Amino acid sequence: IIIKPMTTGKGVLKFPMPKHELFPLKRYWMPFITHHPFTSVLTVYGCPYTCAYCNSGTNTLGLRVGDIEDVIEEIKYVKKLGVKHIFIKDMTFGVPRKHAVELCNEIINQKLNITWHCYSRTDVIDEELLHLMKDAGCTMIQFGVETANESTLLGQKKHISVDSTTKVFDMAHRLSILAGAHFIFGLPGDSIQDMEATIELAKRLKPAYASFNIATQRYGTFLRGVQRKDIDKNYELNSLVKKAYFKFYMRPEYIIKLLEQLKTITQLRSILREGLGILDMIL
Where do the H-state alpha helices sit in 175-251? Predict the structure, then answer.
């Protein structure tokens, strides 16, 4: 990887064309990909945010932005390999906003005819950007919601209100862009009642899928410095996670809505694979 300095103080991420064909692409799956095989493409490295439980914003390289021409060439390259869907693996798509807008416009203008999904934040995405992303082929956005307790979020250096998150999920639903939601149980400050409220929030947001995780003191995070007793509770977090998966996925209204959202056979295959895994975990 070559890091070229910029006069703005930021950095450019530049590397040779990745040899995607060296990987067993047909063996890789993700929930709700619209076509298979798929592959990952990185357009921006790092994250400008410093959430206490995440190490993406504390890496030593900082935020590094890929050249739009290089990204477009990589997309064209993987298309020649038979790839029609990509995972844009930026930690926060939409940052920098100008870069995301330019990329979407190039995908549209060059008629690349590819579908893709990404990670982002609900305080980065707005209706204008959502429309552009949809026109460029975006089919799903994964959001880190974490908890229903806004005080806990603030304590984790994530300043996003539940109300703003709800509005962005509603916008995505209106535009028929699938939304994924990730939650964390056991964050400092969260009680059993807060985690129960998080399960109810997951149901209200109506994401295509929800992921419930246990807070982990990862290397390079601010959470790493929190004393373990602040995270360890007198109840079994694993049991609460199983309860969350059961209450979220085992609802007739969720299953009906899920089937209505499917657009390709590949999506059906992917949710069957994921569904069997969830059932195995719950049971």
Answer: 192-205, 237-249
Q: What is the pLDDT of residues 215-262, one digit of tens each?
A: 988 888 888 877 555 445 545 888 899 999 999 999 999 999 999 998
Q: Alpha helix (H) ranges present in the chain?
A: 68-80, 97-109, 127-135, 150-155, 162-174, 192-205, 237-249, 252-261, 265-282
User: What does each C-alpha distance from 24 to 39, 44, 106, 117 come to in angstroms?
Assistant: 10, 24, 28, 20
What lies within 8 Å, CB to CB, of 250 at 6+ separation is: 282
Q: How far is CA 116 from the centre of its chain?
A: 12
DSSP string over 223-238: GGGS-GGGT--SS-HH
More confident residue, 15 or 148: 148
Question: Around Cβ 181, how many Cβ atoms within 10 Å?
Answer: 24
Closest among 205, 214, 283, 187 to 248, alpha carbons compared: 205
Contact (Cβ atoms closer than 8 angstroms) between residue 90 and residue 43? yes
Q: Which of 116, 95, 181, 176 is nearest to 144 (CA)?
A: 181
* Cβ-based neighbour number of residue 117 at 10 Å: 26
- Distance CA(137)–CA(177), nearest Å, equals 10
What sign results for the dihedral spanned by CA atoms 2, 103, 32, 240? positive
